[in-house]
Specification:
Strand content: 15-25%
Distance between the termini: 51 Å
Number of strands: 14
Number of helices: 12
Shape: elongated
Structural class: alpha/beta
Oligomer: single chain
Order of helices and strands: EEHEEEEEHEHHHHHEHEEHEHEEHH
Strand order of the largest sheet: 3-6-7-2-1-8
Low-confidence stretches: 190-204, 223-236
Mean pLDDT: 85
């Protein structure tokens, strides 16, 4: 049976093993599905315990809460097999399975008295850090008292947007300047392979790091250098578009290496980057505004973290200030500004 977009289902709870898993079903075929596969007749606003069957096979004995004639929450036991088997049954019955990890929750999965309340609920899965969660949950009260705030400031501020959409931060530099060691310090754990040999990183490596409450996709790239190694050459080529798409570049420089020609070329290319002079215990470079670090010991890492967070407006955040994080809010404020 082909899936009808009018009939949808989505896992509301986090994926993986858990005590329960809640699947919300929405659409005109919900009553027919439950009549066919649920052993009891559900009642609106009253949880009903029964069995979900596919023919003679019992998949689970969930609690079904009928929210309306066309919407129901099926509260399953949270085993991976149970959830997978139920979603497959739902899919084969003609429902489109919505992936909740693709972005904010769809309208079918959220509730709230106001538009802001519903937008907060929709974006909760994107709040990866405590700071993001606190700022997002403060927004309904902040917007209710926002009459005295400057809408121009709100339109210009992107802090909450970045808290919910991790920016891509690329670490670049010549070979063996300590990029991977620096990345490990920012991850606060040994995540990347490091060595005192150039070319150790053969490909770009990306993972989410918590930078003072801001989740960022931290990308460690292969060192830029002249090499005859075809694998390393290919890795350097492949990393170029990754760096070009980055929201911020951290340029790592090494005072123990010659400035010309490769490090000076990177300085000319990445003029807006945050400059880091690593191995600063072994030398210095005359670069204004550069952060001096010793990646192996962690010296200077706190300053680098603060600089990254500040770049995206996420340092010293006022939790209860109203902020914009959706296109609807942006349009509403822009419209009010021109009335």
């Amino acid at each position: 049976m082909s899936n009808d977009p009018a009939n949808r289902a989505m896992l509301l709870t986090a994926p993986g093993a858990a005590a329960i898993a809640v699947v919300r079903m929405d659409g005109p075929e919900v009553p027919s599905f439950l009549a066919t596969h649920f052993s009891r007749s559900p009642v609106i606003s009253k949880p009903v315990h029964g069995e979900i069957r596919e023919g003679e096979r019992v998949i689970d004995d969930p609690v079904v809460a009928l929210l309306s004639e066309t919407q129901a929450d099926v509260c399953l036991h949270g085993g991976a097999w149970v959830v997978h088997a139920f979603l497959e049954l739902v899919r084969r019955s003609g429902f489109e399975i919505i992936d909740p990890t693709d972005g904010p929750l769809q309208e079918m999965a959220v509730a709230g008295e106001t538009e802001i309340d519903r937008e907060v609920a929709a974006y909760l899965p994107l709040a990866r850090t405590e700071l993001a969660l606190r700022v997002l949950l403060a927004q309904p009260a902040a917007w209710r008292g926002s009459a005295g705030f400057d809408s121009q400031w709100m339109l210009a501020d992107r802090a909450l947007y970045w808290l919910l959409h991790p920016p891509r931060v690329a670490i670049v530099g010549t070979a063996n300047v300590g990029k991977s060691t620096l990345a490990n310090q920012l991850f606060a754990r040994e995540r990347l392979i490091t060595a005192d040999l150039p070319g150790t990183t053969r490909d770009w490596v990306g993972e989410i790091a918590d930078i003072n409450g801001l989740a960022v996709l931290l990308v460690d790239t292969p060192g830029v250098r002249e090499t005859t190694d075809p694998l390393e050459q290919q890795a350097i080529r492949l990393s170029k578009p990754v760096v070009e798409q980055a929201d911020l570049v951290i340029l790592v420089l090494d005072p123990t290496q010659p400035v010309e020609p490769q490090q000076s070329a990177l300085l000319a290319r990445f003029t807006d980057a945050i400059k880091v002079v690593n191995k600063s215990d072994r030398g210095s470079l005359p670069i204004d505004g550069a952060i001096k670090t010793v990646a192996v010991s962690g010296r200077g890492i706190d300053q680098l973290r603060q600089r990254i967070a500040a770049y995206f407006g996420c340092d010293e955040i006022e939790i209860d200030r109203p902020r914009v994080w959706t296109e609807r809010q942006r349009k509403e404020l822009a419209t009010d500004e021109h009335r």
